[in-house]
Design goal:
Rossmann fold, 20 helices, 20% strand
Length: 543
Amino acid sequence: MVTVQNVSLRYGKRVLFDDVNIKFNTGNCYGVIGANGAGKSTFLKILSGEIEPQTGNVSMSPGERMSVLNQNQSAYDEFPVLQTVVMGNKRLYDISQEKEVLYAKEDFTDADGERVGELEAEFAEMNGWDADSDAAALLSGLGIKEDQHYAQMADLNGSEKVRVLLAQALFGNPDVLLLDEPTNNLDVESSVWLENYLANFNNTVIVVSHDRHFLDQVCTQIVDVDFAKVKLFTGNYSFWYESSQLALKQRQDQNKKTEDKRKELEEFIRRFSANASKSKQATSRGKLLEKLTIDDIQPSSRKYPYVNFKPDREPGDQILTIDNLTYTAEDGTKLFENLSLMVNPKDKIFFYSRDGLAVSALMDILMGERKADSGDFRWGVTITPSYFPTDSEKDKFFDVDLNLVDWLRQYSEEKDESFIRGFLGRMLFSGEESLKKATVLSGGEKVRCMLSRMMLSGSNVLVLDEPTNHLDLESIESLNNGLIDFKGPVLFTSHDHQFAQTIANRIIEITPAGILDKLMTYDEFIADDYIKQQREGLYQAIA
């Protein structure tokens, strides 16, 4: 158990947290949510002891061990991979190191022998003899191949290092587990493995994540960081979101009778309690929802941007034809070869690849940002595509000495300042924020600006490369709904599972040896055993 008592933290005049009191009980998984800048990661650092609050304290039950996902990818570059994982249990690792030093002594004394005996007993009690095999199992589950287990951390790429550090955090069955964005850089298989691992984890988990599907699969409770307060809500993210929206709608409905509102909320709780059986956390969440009262459901104070794409004209029947495209990366890696496909008017295509560079390269080629090695493509004559590029390409748009009003005015046929300010206001840039310089925007603000640019374009085909990066959950929800409602074709990629599942009606996986092209949902695609066999066959063909 972790207990937070009267915790407050401020930076200058800004109050980040004020008088926070909360208990994190054993057996629950808590999802920490909040707008960008609300202090989610800072709150985790207070829990771990990395940051001291101005008032109050954080305490943990005696004898319990806390493990934290390390965000410094270079912290263990001088160590082997397997050893790095075992270092996640500091006491166990210290014992093994002290044993090695003692056994290596030439003048081994009786006192040394007694000390070794004590260490060996404690080592055995901590299952130390299984440490390497347990660490190897975690690494394999997270997609680190066996031939990499004894490599140096410095020899791994960024994605692989993140997985090793996640294995380190999970190692040794900690009593309290703190995870900040654990699904970043994980592929589908590794994310599913982590979901299953945490669903069967019997201790306390506190996790920050922007992945709504992940929060729904593993969380029993939601911790909402909002307006300097930290509040605890029963259920997963979807329950919190839908219940808060229902409560907000009811508060705005002045004509509805109190009894009608109560019945509507009670029915909502019953419906969600019944659906809880579909979750990996079914048993614990079902019990929690049974204890809910109507008063526990409260409206959220969150603000959601308005995302709505309106094409100036409907697309014709000919959208996009790709013939035998081949592209090789600068390092000589073949990203795809002889790629051919046709996009249809009703398609919303989710592109996926184990090498994310392949999808970005394809989208860049289609939008004229790169040239293919060979092959060609043709957009239909009625098509006006709009592009949301990767971070590095997106940042070029903001290397200008303009405020946001003038920046957005560049992309709008309507130049009137009141119109531009109104548009920015709907995207949560109100008042003085609309006069911020484009050069000082945060990652999330740049994304909202680029989405504004796309909305003003009137395009009838949308091409988006990781649009959910840097966005808070509110903006992701709005963008998700905007793309569902958009009537034209969408070509996109994202690490957000729910984003892919709720938007796409066609899935295309790109491998260097060919593509898998299926008319189905994302969940159907990743669960299909025959597709899994096809995928492995393609990768074995280039191994």
